[in-house]
Design brief:
Blueprint: H1 2-10, H2 16-42
Helix pairs in contact: 1-2
């Protein structure tokens, strides 16, 4: 999702406002789902 958000930010297929709104939403979702997973992997006590 993070990569898709970045790709949309760089794309010219949508209007600037649409591209920014969709892109930042996907970047946020990607970050919010990646950070907890990374923290879980780093703090795994097994």
């Amino acid at each position: 999702m993070l990569g898709a958000g970045i790709a949309l930010l760089l794309s010219e297929k949508l209007s600037g406002e649409q591209r920014r709104a969709i892109g930042w939403t996907l970047v946020a979702v990607g970050a919010l789902t990646t950070i907890p997973l990374a923290l879980q992997l780093l703090s795994d006590d097994d």
